[in-house]
Structure formats: structure tokens, C-alpha cells
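REQUEST FORM: STRUCTURE PREDICTION
Request ID: SP-0412
Submitted by: Lab K.M.
Chain count: 1
Length (residues): 341
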Amino acid sequence: MFAAACSFGLLLCPQDAPAAPAPTVDAARQAMWDEAKAKMKPYEVVVPGTEVRFTMLPIAGGVYRMGSPDDEAGRRGDEGPQRWVAVDPFWLGKCEVTWDEYEQWASSLEVKRRSADYEASKADSEADAVSRPTPPYVDMTFGMGKEGYPAIGMTQHAAIKYCEWLSSKLGNFHRLPSEAEWEWACRAGTTTPYGFGDGEDIDEYAWHRGNSDGHYHQVGKKKPNPWGLHDMHGNVSEWCLDQMAPYAAAEGLLVSPLVRGEDEYPQVVRGGSWKERASRLRSAARRGSSSEWKMRDPQIPQSIWYFTDAQFNGFRVLRPYLEPTAADRQKYGSHVVDQGR
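STATUS: Completed
RESULT:
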């Protein structure tokens, strides 16, 4: 009787009840978001002293529900409870960082290309002061390709140091995204499991276990999400700044949440990869790093730069709309002590 009454609209059924409206931010923050939306444009980056180019896309500030609903197919318990989150505007790499970009720092290619009469600028000197990885003892592409392919196998520490180097070279602050920023950009205004829908067209948007032929692929070869970002789902998973931790139930609105921790493991990666089944590529899916990602590293102590068994993980860079203060920058840095290994 109850079900029949619901179907005929005689009663307001729970599933038909209007969704609670999204909470709002204060007037000052909304004004900043509106200003950013009017000013921010896509732009191309040319790294000084190199021929490397990549594109940064504007991501507007906004409010969304982070995590997945209880009934989402493939959901795991660490994706909830859902909570309302406010994210400030930023630019994000259109694609994952490629070997072409990464090795300018990691292998000092940019320094090696300088001529004998090259006069280093202040930015060059600051960038040169950023610590760099020791040479790897294996081919970190593992034979899967280099030019135009995503850089893989670096630790979160290494990815953060690359961002520090890039910040010095370009003169504005770059970092890894927080987990909340990453999911906001991945969802691109959607509430479906994927940024492109429910997953029926996943082969058009993502490299995953079912279509990757057992390796990663050049970036940007699949369709982008609604905000123009490529490979947010699949190809390689991506580092975030956060320590992997359970979501705490939250009342009201969380503004720019970030969970940093002192533990080496686990740190958050998002997006899924070419090695994983499609359900692990969902917008809300989470994964934590593990010491098993260094199983093939024979060094004692093991390297702070390489995850030799994470051939599926990379990163992309974020530039915040508002430049952080020197004090605020500290919370985005690495907690690893560089001892040269």
C-alpha cells in the first residue's frame, strides 16, 4: 500500500524528498571565487632554459559533496561518509607530468644543456638549490616508453621536490593537489561515479586493466573530462598531498581540508591506473601508498626518491589562484629528511 501510494505521488517517499541544498561560503570567499572565475584563463608554460611546454587549466572554486554514496557500485568503506567541502580556485595541469618535464629536474637535463658562457639567473640559482634524486639503478620507464609518457615511480617526496624546483623556475607557487582539490577537479561538476558519467563509455576516457595492454600510454590520448583535464581516470594514478586517513563525519562545510601526517605510509594516490579494474578509477576511489612499492630497492636504507614497484603512479601539478604566504607554504612541503639517498 505504501509503495503504491508513493508511486502515485500520494505520499512523499524518502527517495523523492528534495536533496538538502549545498552549504554556502562567506561573502568574502565567494567574492574571491567570482573574481578568479572572471580572471583565470588557460595558459601554456614554457620552462625557462628548456623546450618543455605544458598547459595549465583554470579550475573555479566551489562546493561539492566529497566521497561516494553508500549505493555506488564498486564503493569501498574509506570513501565515506560523504561530506560537504569548499575548494578555492586553482590551475591544474591539463595532463600528468611527463618524463620530458620531470627529467629536466630529476636528471638535471636543464642544467646540462647550459652553455659554458651561460649566466645563471636568480631563479636558476634558487632552482639549482632544490635537492635532486640520486641516479636510479634501473630504467624507471621499465621499457614502456618515455617521450610523451607520464613520469612514474617517484615517491611523494620526489614529486613535492619537483614542484619546488618548478616554482623556483617559474616564479609562482606550484604544488601537489590536496585530495579534496583532486576530487573536485576530477568530478568537474558531476555527481556520477566518473567525471564522464556512470562508466559505460570508460574506454573513451581512460586506460585501465581492460584496455591498456599491460602498460601505460602517452598522456592526453583519451577524451578529457568536462573541464578539459585528460587522464584523471586511469593511465597512472596520481599523488595527492594528504596522508591516507579515514574520513571523519563532518557537520556543515569543510573549507580546503588537508590531512598531513608524519608517517611515511600510507599517502594518498587518486585516479586509478592502467593496472587496475575500471571500478578503481571512480572519482571517489582512494588508495594509499605502501612499503611494498619499494620491494625491488636493494639500497639500505631504501631510497627516498624512487618507488621501483609503483610503475602505475605519477602526478600532476597545481598552482593556487592565491599565492600562499611563506608560512603557509610550509604545510605543502615534504616531511622527509633528505639524507642523499
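NOTES: The two ends are 70 Å apart (CA to CA).
Reviewed by: T.R.
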